[in-house]
Amino acid sequence: MRRFLDLIVKRLLRSRAGVAIVLFAIVLLIVGVARGFSGNATDRGPTVTSGGDSTVAGPSVDPSFNYDGPVSSLTPATPSTSPGGAVPDAVGYAFAAAWVDHQNVSAATWYGRLLPHATKSLAEKLKGVDPVSVPADRLTGEPVVVPYADSVADVTVTVDSGTLRLTLVAPDGRWLVDSVDWERA
User: Given CA atoms 87, 90, 94, 99 in this order, what sign does their dihedral have?
Assistant: First the structure.
């Protein structure tokens, strides 16, 4: 008998199919043990009764069920702007227009046009950038604002070669571009 078991185990573990069968058996064993320790079916979550005696899992939640999932706001954030200040889409569009206007201008002129719309951090990153490296020549779409908070928003503008994505911040109610990203079309 021992020789028979040795032969089966050696052959079984030397083939791919045998290894797959052993791994499948181990997974089934683990799932079975986990189900055994998980409690009875009434502790597993919300249920809905459908007119008869049967119980069917459904979208309604029993008020006594303690759900600890993610919480989201049903109303989107509204960007706030200080009185007299430009709204995020206007700032984003002005920056984008200056960004694509790089032909036949010096690097200093191009950089100077971006400064009124950029944070100090972004201005430092853009210092010394050659405007020839800008991968777009003209704006082809209107700005689209996606607010994340009252002082953080993304503005995307379609350009001739893709999409310009700007992150704007307004810590004091004045919107400025804080980062620039470009996605090829």
Answer: positive
Q: How far is CA 45 from the centre of its chain?
A: 29
How far is 23 from 35, CA to CA, in rounded Å? 18
Q: How far apart are CA 99 and CA 164, in angstroms?
A: 10
Residue the block writes with tokens 């944070």: 119
* Residue from 144, 169, 139, 140 nearest 155 by CA: 144
The DSSP call for residue 85 is P
Cα distance between residue 141 and residue 164, in whole Å:
10
Whole-angstrom Cα distance, residue 139 to residue 126?
A: 20
CA 47 to chain centre: 32
Q: Where are the alpha helices (DSSP H) in 38-166?
A: 88-100, 107-114, 120-126
The token pair at 97 is 């227009």
Q: Which residues contact 19 (CB under 8 A, 6 or more apart)?
A: 13
Query: Would you say the C-alpha torsion 103, 106, 107, 112 has a positive or negative sign?
Result: negative
178/184 Cα distance (integer angstroms): 20
162-181 pLDDT tens trace: 999 999 999 888 999 999 99
Residue 90, number of CB atoms within 10 A of its CB: 16
pTM over 0.85: no
